[in-house]
């Protein structure tokens, strides 16, 4: 039995949420999880359809993308995942999907404005979108640079990765993360719903404006921080 | 066995309609039911995903929000529910969801106009939307004040809660109610469908106008009041 | 055993397609079938949710709407069905739904233009929409007059009910019919899909025009009439 | 046992993906597969609903559309399939659907612009749309001419059928192909998702422009050609 069996199972379960929650079709999307003590991540193998995916197919690589265990190639997006793990030290899971409405906002190269409490329950600002990658970065090491695009965006805009666990990569789609693989996928589910609600809101009222700050803060802080009172406190 | 077992079962069943009818994702939404003789309500615990919810998780609180029975925290929206029960004496169940199209109208801060007989079968006027809550109310006792927003709206506009069993809270989402928890959820299902139909109608014809009064009344009164002839009369 | 058992079973099966094909929520919608030799129709009882509907609940009434057999009230739309049977002699089944996109076109009071071969496979002209009913007709005998609205439309526009087996009632929704209850429901399924396709087409290209006559005729007549070659010829 | 049993099974399985993936309602759509050594194709019979389709119903015809084996009429679109097989020598499967968003673009007579990496993962240019067929071609041999429309488009625009495995036929809907029937259906699934994403993107941002060439190429060539590194290389 693999010493990473527990991590593989966790990552397998999280990946299987993608088709169940309709966050991507065919082979698109991938979830990973990290074992910081061992210095490895577990990630979906590249191009495998979900209905054929098995726990033993999950690939183990270290944080420098070197294969540690597995018979299959890891996801082609692996370098984006590992760069995020190296720079976001409290993150335990990363999820990438091609969910329809989130991709549409990414293709429109528009941040998703915070229009209501469903959004405010999860983050205060708009869901940010990166710039389109430069030709130089594309030619260099594309998936690594995709991670850099995200890091640059958070750095330039002064955003906290612990407060904002989701981002749109321009012309591509969403990446989300969280304390573990299940939370990373949860954030992709929520992002897709927020993306759809924002789309519909602006169709109904093109002049709809962002939720007022006090109402936004109220919802965010009833779920986050020391005075949170949503959930079971565990 | 709890003396509230029957109420808990009723409320559990009503809550499980939310994911089944796709009225909210993950842990969003909550349904309650009241036992007026005992002076208590049963309500979903806060932040519990539906696929893990069990009958014994349902929480009993009194109408002043004091815990009566249960091992979990009640829904963070409990104070909205109890305020509605205290002011709407014939209501037996209350439902709150984040259903996609209803939320979009709430975020657009627009009442849903009555454009056809699907709407008119259930209520005569537009589905009303509250004003955005003032900063003072948000800071005070937010969930209690959410209930007050609803009560104020019905009072100012002279609406009957027995005729209009649904409302949109601005920038948030829908609340519905009815004679029992099942009817409250039924109204959330209907509201979501009406919200989607109205959205599509106005996309097809931005100049679509409200259904004429005589046709609206005909549909409403064939389902409501002493001359109703829809259904099995029981 | 009822002498109408076969008809009841056929009508029950056709009604159960409504929730399966998502043509209406909760209790909305109804399908009937006729036995011309016996002079009766079988129809869904009024206000019964589909998951509780049983074969023995199906109600038998004659073509003058007099109850022949059954313990429940027939659909409140029964008089519309019987009027169609009396005036459309080759019709064997009638279906009424509140399917979302068809209702949106009905509420927009716009005929659905024939924009492509999916539509042309089933009918040549636009899917017609009635006028809004006059106050006099609404007050008189509403469901009977709904049937009259359909008959008047077909008469005024010189339409053949055998060629055009679907119609939108303004501010209300679709009625469809066919040689038997199954074909009536089939037409409701097709209508909903055509309604959605036409909505999307005009969103993508507001200047999209009707399919050219020669292409429309080609598709219609490869499925209908003496030179048809689609299907298995039975 | 038929000597074409293996081909029939493959084609049956591919056809059954159409309802499962919601690419067409009722009897619409059809998939075929070719056995180049035997000079035959296997194809869905005309007008049979998917829930009644059996492996033995699959029809065998030769590349000149002559019936070789089967008790049912082949799909009315058979001549389009065979013409594509005769002119696209490396194609092993062809799929035709009436999937909703792809049909909407076809009815709008607009190519689907390449707005992001989901599209670029599969092809570089827009998804092309044919011209509307001339009256002469419609009268001649319609389904054969539908194939000719596709061949003319690829010839005039200098497109490679091996790089672009999907097309929209104006006012009608999509045809896709691939190395085998399963890949042909895969391309129909992907096309429908791309069509929906492009629709939503342009609703959110009507000024959204095509993905830049370098990013498009990067995604296309990480999945195609000698330097591909997506998937398991088999």
UniProtKB/TrEMBL annotation, chains A, B, C, D:
Transmembrane segments: none annotated. Keywords: Carbohydrate metabolism, Isomerase, Metal-binding, Zinc. Its EC number is 5.1.3.4. GO terms for biological process: pentose catabolic process. InterPro entries: Aldolase_class_II_sugar_metab (IPR050197), Aldolase_II/adducin_N (IPR001303), Aldolase_II/adducin_N_sf (IPR036409). Pfam families: Aldolase_II. It catalyses: L-ribulose 5-phosphate = D-xylulose 5-phosphate. The keyword Cell division does not apply. Residues 9-199 form the Class II aldolase/adducin N-terminal domain. GO terms for cellular component: cytosol. The keyword Repeat does not apply. PANTHER family: FUCULOSE PHOSPHATE ALDOLASE, L-RIBULOSE-5-PHOSPHATE 4-EPIMERASE SGBE. Belongs to the aldolase class II family. AraD/FucA subfamily. This is L-ribulose-5-phosphate 4-epimerase. It comes from Dyadobacter luticola. The lineage of its organism: Bacteria, Pseudomonadati, Bacteroidota, Cytophagia, Cytophagales.
